[in-house]
Amino acid sequence: MGTPAEPTVTRSALAPGLLGAVILLGGLALLDSESFIIIRYAVSILAMILCVFAIQAKAWLWLIGLVPIAVLWNPIVVIDLSGRGWVSAQFIAALVFILVGVVTKVPVHRD
């Protein structure tokens, strides 16, 4: 049979992408409450983590979707958005997180 070949790429962005999507969809229930700040922190941090994986994978186009997510959900300098547009943004951001997580393949560096 032989020994299996070691993988050359990993899907490191899959877990943070799916986790971010779950947080965004769960955050829909907290949109108008004070607790939404927790959602903002989590989404912003996970967006920045996905940015790092996109840069490592040299998938520069994903930054077009991830950087605005990191900025809009930023809990430090709050951009106050509300209404249907903000709800739609939650769904779009969840879709971006899922797509980045599934598509991004980070090369494995051999030391």
Shape: elongated
Distance between the termini: 27 Å
Number of helices: 4
> Structural class, from secondary structure content?
mainly alpha
**Proportion of strand residues:** under 5%
Rg value: 16 Å
Strand order of the largest sheet: 1-2
- Weakly predicted, low-confidence segments: none
Average pLDDT figure = 90
Element pattern in H and E: EHHHHE
Q: Please bin the fraction of helical residues.
A: 55-70%
Biggest sheet descriptor: 2 strands, antiparallel
Care to count the β-strands? 2
Structure description:
This protein is mainly alpha-helical and 111 residues long. It is built from four helices and two strands. It has helices spanning 14-26, 36-56, 63-72, 84-103, and strands at 9-10, 106-107. The protein has a two-stranded antiparallel sheet with strand order 1-2. Helix 1 packs antiparallel against helix 2 and helix 2 runs antiparallel to helix 3 (63-72). The chain is elongated. 25% of the residues are buried.
Question: What would a concise description of this structure say?
Answer:
The chain is mainly alpha-helical.
Please name the defining characteristics of this protein.
4 helices; two-stranded antiparallel sheet; elongated
